[in-house]
Amino acid sequence: MVEKAKFIWMDGKFIPWDEAQVHIMTHSLHYGLGVFEGIRAYQCADGRTAIFRLREHIRRLYDSAHVMQMDIPYPQAEIEHVCAEILKVNGQKEAYLRPLAFVGDGVMGLHPQNNPIRVAIISWIWGAYLGDEGLKKGIRAKISSFARHHVNVMMTKAKATGNYINSILAKREATALGYDEAILLDTDGYVAEASGENIFLARDGVIKTPPLTAVLPGITRDCLITLARDFGIPVVEEIFSRDELYLADEIFMTGTAAEVTPVREVDGRRIGPGKPGPIAKKLQAAFFEVVKGQDPRYQHWLTYI
């Protein structure tokens, strides 16, 4: 269960958590058109709170809205400001932030016409998405029977609410079979991403990750590519098949919620030694140093509160 915070920001003002409600005729409830972001704020080593890559997340929120022809009625700078303010209002040193833009009530039918675009920002305490044990020991993943979206079926560069029905189906299937996470292939049969994470493999010291075609341009993905290259680890963005996953020395997933989570097994096949490998562990440790303000090279990624 989500632990309630004191306030939620909704349509321009802070209101008590339990009062943040919408009408049953809200268009997005019926047709799934909305955009959102997931952002983390961390308590740094010096005791201050910093939001990780806030500007990039809010830019992607507005990019998603643009793709979906939604005009968010607030400037980006105001939404960035509210993301910082809500942490103060709720007294949170660490939190997960969820900006959400959706189509309000008015007309029904597939064309929302002039229905208002409503905006909310929520903050709550959320630990490791795939579990603390998963961060330390790695998770078990299953190739899904559901394919990832084709680029001309859904807009794959938009972090849109309706896109995630695909992820829900894949995640439910995987967990029902006893796995922790699902990995989806694209419509050509190549590895795309997990239900809520980007995916990387390492073999012979080289990292490989799918290109940004049918996958979301993950901000944590970008962070890990930067860190790896700064460490001198080669990173290749190219398509690969599911059996390359089976033959990998290491696999790890990245995302705001999942952070950097190693994968120890795929489809009943042990990956490498069956535990997090040296590259995943190195990058995971570096990532947590960055988000906690311990690496001065990446201070520009942090917005301090």
Chart the SSEs and their pairings.
Layout: E1 7-10, E2 13-16, H1 27-31, E3 34-36, E4 39-43, E5 49-52, H2 54-67, H3 76-90, E6 95-103, E7 117-124, H4 132-137, E8 139-143, H5 164-176, E9 181-185, E10 191-194, E11 198-203, E12 206-209, H6 219-230, E13 235-237, H7 242-246, E14 250-255, E15 259-266, E16 269-270, H8 278-291, E17 302-304
Parallel strand pairs: 8-9, 8-15, 12-13
Antiparallel strand pairs: 1-2, 1-7, 3-6, 4-5, 4-6, 5-17, 6-7, 9-10, 11-12, 11-14, 14-15, 15-16
Helix pairs in contact: 2-3
Give your account of this protein's structure.
This protein is an alpha+beta fold and 305 residues long. Helix content is 28%, strand content 27%. It has helices at residues 27-31, 54-67, 76-90, 132-137, 164-176, 219-230, 242-246, 278-291, and strands spanning 7-10, 13-16, 34-36, 39-43, 49-52, 95-103, 117-124, 139-143, 181-185, 191-194, 198-203, 206-209, 235-237, 250-255, 259-266, 269-270, 302-304. The strands form 2 sheets. Strands 8, 9, 10, 11, 12, 13, 14, 15 and 16 form a 9-stranded mixed β-sheet that branches. Strands 1, 2, 3, 4, 5, 6, 7 and 17 form an 8-stranded antiparallel β-sheet that branches. Strand 4 and strand 5 (49-52) form a beta hairpin. The chain starts with 6 loop residues before the first strand and ends with a strand. 44% of the residues are buried.
Task: List the main descriptive attributes of the protein structure presented here.
about 300 residues, 9-stranded mixed beta sheet, 8 helices, about 30% helix, 8-stranded antiparallel beta sheet, alpha+beta
